[in-house]
Amino acid sequence: MTAHCANPGSMIGLAAPGAPVWLSRSDNPKRKLGHSWELVEVDLGSGTELVGINTTNPNALAAEAIAAGLVPELAGYGASAAR
Taking the CB of residue 78, how many other CB atoms lie within 10 A of it? Predict the structure, then answer.
């Protein structure tokens, strides 16, 4: 299968043959490819990890995690700006 890869950066160690990948599917008829590469499972030396490939996702994921209180170190971040 051929999938779109939105990552313009180095993929050294992430494009290993046989590594499990996570894809998303789009039914948009205007797209050249129907799938996008989202994540890859790799062992970078300390066990298997999920690595994000789609560079359009991190900011939204971080904001969602902070808003849900999943990053205790950032609890209340931005609250003073709203006062």
Answer: 10
- The β-bridge relationship of strands 21-25 and 48-52 is unpaired
Q: What is the DSSP-derived secondary structure letter of residue 51?
A: E
- Please report which confidence band the pLDDT of residue 83 belongs to, taking 50, 70 and 90 as the band edges: very low
Nearest to 54 by CA among 2, 4, 10: 4
- Among residues 46, 52, 47, the alpha carbon closest in space to that of 11 is found at 52
The string of pLDDT tens digits covering residues 2-12 is 999 988 788 88
Cα 22 to chain centroid, rounded:
10
